[in-house]
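ok here's Pectin acetylesterase, seq below lol
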Amino acid sequence: MMKLSWVWIVIAIAFLQLVTGFLDFNETELSLIEAYDYGVSKLNYNPFMVGLTLITSAGAKGAVCLDGTLPGYHWHRGYGSGANSWLIHLEGGGWCNNVRTCVYRKKTRRGSSTYMEKQIPFTGILSDKADQNPDFFNWNRVKVRYCDGASFTGDTENKAAKLQFRGQRIWLVAMEDLMSKGMRNAKQALLSGCSAGGLASILHCDEFRNMFPRTSKVKCLSDAGLFLDAVDVSGGRTLRSLYNGVVGLQGVQHNLPRICTIHRDPTSCFFPQNLISNIRTPLFILNAAYDSWQIQSSIAPPSADPHGYWHECRLNHAKCSASQMRFLQGFRIEMLNAIKGFSQSRENGLFINSCFAHCQTERQETWFAATSPEIRNKAIAIAVGDWYFDRAGVKVIDCPYPCDKSCHNLVFK
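and the structure came out like this:
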């Protein structure tokens, strides 16, 4: 009887540990791994569906996803005046910072091409319709899929866990493949990306520029990629801890800009605030001042809020208390301070709107529609186009929340 009691006690303890671990995984790390699918529009824009192309030459170069499968991209060929213009958009989707989260990730579309959609809608900056995407609709438009978990920068492996961290190789082999398909003749090129892909577009911006002749017009756009090394609500640094794991696990340090790593530790050089002022290529930063992902997963994640004081606020800004809003206003000020040096360059562009949003180039309603967010009567698509084509200098910063009534604020259940 005593032996049976001990068996049940052991089972109960194991069950509790399993449940606790499961809740912890779902509440924190899952949001960091997968992020959110912001590219899906709520409105019926009848988007063009574009098929997945796997890069067959990647395997021989070891440029593979976390699980060893081939990486890929979606490409819609340009035509007319856009035939020799290329828009490369790097997919986002969080990061994995330890073996456990990376093993989970390799069983999803963020870590394996086996699970990737065979077709995806091209909306927003990828749309093929002039009334939805006035400046880039007839360009060669490419969405590079994200399956490494380190913003296309890692280069190592973990044989025991059967994990390949080959983001840098994936980036290079994708560019080589596209060059062979006509991108080498580009007269105009724009490297963009959303979220973790927005960080990647910053990290790879100068590399991208160097792939083309000096006569080509080449610029970069980071959407929701300005991740800050900010203090969370408990006084800790949740995102720095995450990035430290990503950089160490995936061998990222070897592929970070040397102009940063000679002065700072590798983790600091994964934060865009320490990179943007030294990028030589013209760069446009598009970011919500109250970035939804950063609020949920960096500023007020459940791990930093064990009593749930921030739970309602992090899901819906309308439920934030006055003190919580003051904290978020402080985060906005920190963001504005981080871009001061960057904004002094005449070639750079800026669009910081006071919205609770994330990834505004991929969603049609936030990129260019009748009710799109605006600053000074200018929608995001027009601001980016004006900057890229040198029609106007664009450095616009919204007044603080709640003054902007054009936002498409994200609310989570």
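fwiw DSSP finds 13 helices and 14 strands in the chain. kinda neat tbh
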